[in-house]
Amino acid sequence: MMETDAAIVRRAIDGDERAMRLLWNQHAPHVDAVVRRLAADPDLAEDIAQEVWIQIFRALPSWRGDAKFSTWIHRVAINRTLNALRSVKRLAATETAIEEDSAFVEQDAERSMLAQSIEAAAQQLSPGARTVFLLHDVEGYTHEEIAEELGITAGGSKSQLFKARAKLRRLLAPLVESLSLNTGQDRNYEGGYAGGYAAQ
């Protein structure tokens, strides 16, 4: 019978190395993916991921079981990664208020190709705009939550997201046109593309 997350976490808190390895084996792929997306730099992401896992094991006693462990560890990974990025001064933000757009998630057969295109385009954004785009459109954070995490205002978060989406529209325009010609449908990157990226 497989152990529950709660049982494994309890053993890990008590210093059981096998339990720690089990948690790492189960969750490292997802945690590493989150760190890579936010850091954008492979070498930096590798360093941050090691620190993230140290922090995760230190924070295990704070998990009370009121949320799924995978949800909790996802949140810890994001928070610790943002802290690390702040320490190397990779974040930037402005404070111009705009109307908040909603993100609609659509899944289709082109998800893998679209996700790769989105990821490549996202690397061309400024660090601040990319971080806000990933947190809002990919991770599902609200502007208020982003503002708290990054130490900016909600208006600043909205402004960064507006800039990120505007640049992504320009960068992805050829792909959008190609898909529209092939399918006869007009596609909105803010929904289908971000949804495909998030699913990776």
Commentary on this structure:
With 200 residues, the protein is mostly helical. The chain folds into two domains: 5-87, Orthogonal Bundle (Rna Polymerase Sigma Factor, Chain: A); 111-198, Winged helix-like DNA-binding domain superfamily/Winged helix DNA-binding domain (Arc Repressor Mutant, subunit A). Helices cover 70% and strands 0% of the residues. The protein contains nine helices and no strands. The longest helix is centred in the last third of the chain and has 30 residues, at 154-183.
Evaluate the radius of gyration. Answer: 18 Å
Q: Predict the CATH topology of the largest domain.
A: Arc Repressor Mutant, subunit A
Total beta strands: 0
Helix count, per DSSP? 9
| Helicity range | over 70%
Q: What class would the helix/strand composition place it in?
A: mainly alpha
Low-confidence stretches: 90-110, 189-193
Outline the biggest β-sheet: none
Q: pLDDT average, as an integer?
A: 75
Q: Care to give the gist of this entry?
A:
The protein has helices at residues 5-13, 17-39, 42-59, 69-87, 111-122, 127-138, 143-150, 154-183, 189-198. The chain is an all-alpha fold.
Main features:
200 residues; 9 helices; mainly alpha; Arc Repressor Mutant, subunit A; Rna Polymerase Sigma Factor, Chain: A
Secondary structure layout plus pairing:
Layout: H1 5-13, H2 17-39, H3 42-59, H4 69-87, H5 111-122, H6 127-138, H7 143-150, H8 154-183, H9 189-198
Helix pairs in contact: 1-2, 2-3, 2-4, 3-4, 5-8, 5-9, 6-8, 7-8
